């Protein structure tokens, strides 16, 4: 190889490595959880109940609560499902496909808030129960991005991208939804089923894949 070709090859390799480092995204593994409306919070935990913050989450303003509920389906029960705050306009239950099988339901894969026609279940709290006619989903894999991150990655809100996982169980996730907001912190969210399939844990790094 000519010296100038070697220099060009090394330069290209260094640039590619720097680009890959700048385009990595931290992972957040999402276990089953519930977002409650104020009305359902009152039914489950009592009329004057408010959410008790237990731990701040990675996304600004979001937190895990001390409160838990029991999730009941036609074929099974899952206890100690964590409530996340703050309260929302509509109750939403996010589970994995494996959880759905355990409960005897088949929730659709949906973006957060897209609940029309989603699966049914019953929530049981210490003060009462709520039967949901819809609201149970498997959360679509997605990336939270601040506006500055979107500029850096060259993507836009609601765009679908691919994410690459390296390692012994490396794979490429397709159909990853980009969600851009000034209130978001950069993070790739997958549920427990998908994280286990790829050998991922919280704070691991993945790459925005550009074939």
Describe the structure.
The chain is an alpha/beta fold. About 25% of the residues lie in helices and about 45% in strands. It is built from five helices and 14 strands. The strands form two sheets. A six-stranded mixed β-barrel has the order 1-13-10-12-11-14. A six-stranded mixed β-barrel has the order 2-5-4-8-9-6. Strand 4 and strand 5 form a beta hairpin. The longest helix has 20 residues. It is globular, with a radius of gyration of 20 Å. About 0% of the residues have low confidence.
Order of helices and strands: HEEHEEEEHEEEEHEEEHE
Total helical elements: 5
Beta content comes to: 35-45%
Rg over C-alpha atoms, rounded to the nearest angstrom: 20 Å
- Class from helix and strand fractions: alpha/beta
The total count of strands amounts to 14
Largest sheet, in brief, is: 6 strands, mixed, barrel
Major sheet: arrangement of strands:
1-13-10-12-11-14
The helix content, as a percent range, equals 10-25%
Low-confidence stretches: 17-21
Q: Using the alpha-carbon principal axes, give the shape.
A: globular
Ends apart, CA distance between termini: 27 Å
For the residues shown, what is the average pLDDT?
A: 91
